[in-house]
């Protein structure tokens, strides 16, 4: 049962005061992180709410995605919304330099990017004063009270989409029930990934009429771009050799992947593993692991190509996953052998590949079970099962082809669900297609 009330609480005012005090220190920390990724001093000031782009005339719809995955989901929404709102402009914010680098290469027309303001009164006030958004759509797993309350106070309606809160986050908010209710009241619509998240939001005070099943927005994302020239180079370098991809791996996952590959080489001696760590800056560490495993390797970050003796190709670069997915029909998705939450299988399926995942895909619980049931993906739990899954597909091309088809069909079916969600967003956020 939804509690009554929902006004600002003493805890909210305390948080607002505290964040105002610590904002200068927080800015130094985030600015240093951005600078380390080559972001200019001028653009660092966007985190303080200082815009570096002019506001376009007319309706501005603001979408926020915390990091790469959320920002790419936001781009999917922008593309679909842009088809229904021909006069609207879109502002996409993110919190990381990696997300900025990825999305700025893929932004559709009438869209611009800025870094999100810190969740403090000053930065948020400056941000809202400049951009004056008509609505805010948050593709987030965190809730920022000052940003949400300040934006809603301007009259802009808010939606939380792809809503995903960890059990730990829900427990923290549950301990602050009146403030949680106040935060929930800021939203006009919640589009959740699964029933568990819906139940959590209702428990925190979300109004039942505002909570809807939204599936996973990442299902509607465009295929990742592939570098055709690099793809030709890789095909020429590999020749007739088969390859498989281990993508977006995290600490603790490369070792079982390499163990699986060594086992595969016993029966498939010409097999090449394309290993793409989630964080390319870990390239040196991963290279050491490959060497300690007694495997030969070449590195993409050094502009090397595989030779006939290369057993592992270390793709330690950013923005090239689409190329690796297009290179091989077999992809193991990392972030799943460790309890990370998994990564986006729709990107793999749209590239024409079949998916292998570990059990730790809790961020995609609405996606992987039906995809596995459709035989577009398989679940493994250790290195032995991983090597067996890859070997099965290598030795049974008809089964592999069926898995590729099933993965692609599943992604297409899930994408079709998004059309209804766009209409729902436009309706609940009072976005007028005729507003110029």
From TrEMBL:
In terms of domain of life, where is this protein from? Bacteria
The GO terms this record gives for MF are: transferase activity
Q: Which SUPFAM superfamilies match?
A: UDP-Glycosyltransferase/glycogen phosphorylase (SSF53756)
| Record's catalysed reaction(s) | lipid IVA (E. coli) + CMP-3-deoxy-beta-D-manno-octulosonate = alpha-Kdo-(2->6)-lipid IVA (E. coli) + CMP + H(+)
EC top class named in words: transferase
Cellular localization per UniProt: Cell membrane
- Which pathway does this polypeptide act in? Bacterial outer membrane biogenesis; LPS core biosynthesis
Q: What is the protein's major site of localization?
A: membrane
What does the UniProt keyword field contain? Cell membrane, Lipopolysaccharide biosynthesis, Membrane, Transferase
Q: Does the entry feature the keyword Cytoplasm, yes or no?
A: no
Task: Tell me where in this chain the 3-deoxy-D-manno-octulosonic-acid transferase N-terminal domain is found.
Answer: 43-219
Q: What is its EC number?
A: 2.4.99.12
Stated family: Belongs to the glycosyltransferase group 1 family.
PANTHER family of this UniProt entry? Answer: 3-DEOXY-D-MANNO-OCTULOSONIC ACID TRANSFERASE, MITOCHONDRIAL-RELATED, 3-DEOXY-MANNO-OCTULOSONATE CYTIDYLYLTRANSFERASE
Q: What does this protein do?
A: Involved in lipopolysaccharide (LPS) biosynthesis. Catalyzes the transfer of 3-deoxy-D-manno-octulosonate (Kdo) residue(s) from CMP-Kdo to lipid IV(A), the tetraacyldisaccharide-1,4'-bisphosphate precursor of lipid A.
Return the protein name.
3-deoxy-D-manno-octulosonic acid transferase
Q: What species does this protein belong to?
A: Parasedimentitalea denitrificans
What lineage is on file? Bacteria, Pseudomonadati, Pseudomonadota, Alphaproteobacteria, Rhodobacterales
């Amino acid at each position: 049962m939804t509690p009554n009330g929902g006004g600002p609480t003493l805890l909210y005012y305390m948080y607002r005061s505290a964040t105002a005090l610590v904002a200068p220190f927080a800015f130094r920390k985030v600015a240093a992180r951005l600078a380390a990724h080559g972001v200019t001093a001028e653009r660092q000031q966007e985190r303080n709410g200082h815009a570096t782009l002019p506001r376009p005339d007319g309706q501005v719809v603001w979408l926020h995605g915390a990091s790469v995955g959320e920002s790419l989901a936001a781009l999917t929404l922008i593309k679909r919304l842009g088809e229904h709102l021909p006069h609207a402009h879109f502002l996409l914010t993110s919190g990381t330099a990696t997300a900025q680098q990825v999305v700025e290469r893929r932004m559709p027309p009438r869209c611009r990017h800025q870094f999100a303001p810190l969740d403090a009164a000053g930065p948020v006030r400056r941000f809202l004063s400049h951009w004056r958004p008509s609505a805010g759509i948050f593709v987030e797993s965190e809730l920022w009270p000052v940003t949400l309350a300040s934006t809603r106070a301007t009259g802009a309606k808010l939606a939380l989409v792809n809503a995903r809160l960890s059990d730990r986050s829900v427990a923290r908010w549950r301990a602050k029930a009146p403030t949680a209710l106040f935060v929930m009241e800021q939203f006009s619509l919640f589009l959740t990934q699964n029933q568990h998240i819906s139940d959590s939001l209702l428990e925190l005070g979300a109004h039942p009429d505002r909570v809807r099943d939204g599936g996973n927005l990442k299902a509607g994302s465009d295929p990742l771009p592939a570098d055709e020239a690099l793809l030709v180079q890789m095909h020429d370098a590999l020749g007739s050799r088969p390859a498989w991809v281990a993508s977006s791996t995290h600490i603790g996952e490369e070792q079982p992947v390499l163990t699986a590959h060594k086992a595969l080489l016993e029966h498939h001696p010409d097999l090449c593993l394309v290993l793409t760590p989630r964080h390319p800056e870990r390239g040196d560490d991963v290279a050491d692991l490959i060497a300690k495993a007694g495997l030969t390797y070449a590195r993409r970050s050094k502009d090397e190509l595989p030779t006939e003796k290369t057993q592992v190709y270390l793709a330690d670069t950013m923005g090239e996953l689409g190329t690796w997915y297009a290179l091989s029909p077999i992809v193991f998705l990392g972030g799943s052998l460790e309890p990370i939450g998994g990564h986006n299988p729709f990107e793999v399926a749209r590239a024409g590949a079949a998916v292998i995942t570990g059990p730790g895909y809790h961020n995609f619980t609405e996606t992987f079970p039906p995809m596995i049931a459709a035989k577009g993906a398989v679940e493994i739990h250790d290195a032995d099962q991983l090597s067996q899954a890859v070997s099965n597909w290598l030795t049974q091309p008809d089964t592999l082809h069926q898995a590729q088809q099933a993965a692609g069909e599943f992604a297409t079916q899930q994408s079709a669900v998004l059309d209804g969600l766009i209409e729902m967003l436009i309706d609940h956020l009072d976005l007028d297609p005729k507003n110029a």
